[in-house]
């Protein structure tokens, strides 16, 4: 499902040679997460969690090493193969990344529209998920009109609406109260139980204690456990 | 029963928020200005083509025959005059549609620029001038001069063909210039649309990155931009073309004498060549296609920077 072999990542100008890249933010990362696996992604701020998530969300490609996601080698995959792969990956960003000009409903419906689903199915699924996250009365509201917690719930609904094969979350409970965080963890567990591979980056130790699972621990760009 | 609220936005709307990115009036205004120029150039292309055709087929089919001592008879008193015999010979020649001797007033009109107001009263032994119009597409018969000289000794045939061919060549070069201007305007329009699109891309960069990360293909994103740019360029081109119409009609009215329509009295737009009415309606469509193509290329090229 996820196979990472000696992966390194440096940020630099696209298309430049490896030597001209900046300092490596990830170094020789190797791990594997089987299909239907659940992993916490832990580490201090600046340890490389977000960079690793960016690799897994296909926002960047590895500078070195091999990354295999959902059966596709990311280093060698052609650019035109990536959109279909991205549609199988759900992502909950720490900063939500909602589209400000779209309503809650349209933000949640967007991944299904990109996948070319019929409007009837999109409507049914989006409304069901919005009701599930408790935002059925905020359908036409725009992100700017919502609280941080509500925006987080819209982002979660958007991430899971396609029933992704891989779900990645960056501090998904950061803006939620305890009850909502609990419901979110139950949703992630439920998705994981039906076969979705889940990776959650968090600083929330109590959450990690409550929901025991294997952890990938990063420190200064290196994997120190996992 | 399933919960189904009403009034939610339908599919295929403005996912990228381009209404805010590709400003409402700047692009249509610029395209309208270019469509105005393109309409003038298209008018030039159609006008010069019509002139060239007129000169080649219309005026180009005219030749002049000079008959010295036109009223002298070729034999006895019952025999025809020299000019009558020349007219008979021409009438019997293949390819000649009409042969007509110019009257005294027409001769005076021709001489007036050279001899002054009293040209008709000057006692000069003038030849008769016969204006010969050929059947459209017919060539001047090779043996015409020989046959006329045999029938009426001393006649001279003046073929206007070479001079008119040069005039026609001038019309074709003007047409080529107008076509070049048309191509330049089209290229310029493509450039302006590309710049406007890049501005839109910069303004919506974050939205594009989000939608790209959700799995949108390059074709989906480029299609969204191209659809909006196409609508804006078509609108601008339509406005520019409509504004150009009265200007073109005025210019065509001024050019009427060149096309042998000096006596025409109809409305100015009737003076526009027929070919123009085929070119003109196509302009907004062509502009829309340029808008679509330039936007598709610009967006797809820009998207290459994303993984």
Q: What overall geometry of chain A do the principal axes of the alpha carbons give?
A: globular
Computed CA radius of gyration of chain B, to the nearest angstrom: 32 Å
The 3D shape of chain B can be described as rod-shaped
Would you list the SSEs of chain B in sequence order as H and E?
HHEHEHEHEHHHHH
List its traits.
heterodimer; A: alpha/beta; 7 helices; 32% helix; B: 307 residues; alpha+beta; 10 helices; 60% helix
What this model shows, in words?
The complex is a heterodimer of chains A (226) and B (307). Chain A has helices at residues 49-56, 82-86, 104-114, 119-132, 148-160, 178-193, 205-210; strands at 2-10, 24-33, 38-42, 64-69, 72-73, 89-92, 166-170, 197-201, 214-219, 222-225. In chain A, strands 6-7-8-3-9-10 form a six-stranded mixed beta sheet, with helices on both faces. Chain A has a four-stranded antiparallel beta sheet with strand order 2-1-4-5, with helices on one face. In chain A, α3 packs across α4, α3 (104-114) runs parallel beside α5 and α4 crosses α5. Chain A has seven helices and ten strands. Chain A has a domain at 99-162. Chain A is globular, with a radius of gyration of 18 Å. In chain A, β4 (64-69) and β5 form a beta hairpin. In chain B, strands 2-3-1-4 form a four-stranded antiparallel beta sheet, with helices on one face. Chain B is rod-shaped and about 105 Å long. The chains are: A alpha/beta (226), B alpha+beta (307). Chain A binds chain B through residues 14, 57-61, 79-80, 82-87, 91, 97-103, 105-106, 110-111, 113-115, 119, 122-124, 127, 131, 136, 139-140, 158, and chain B through 2-5, 7-15, 17, 20, 207, 210-218, 220, 304-305, 307.
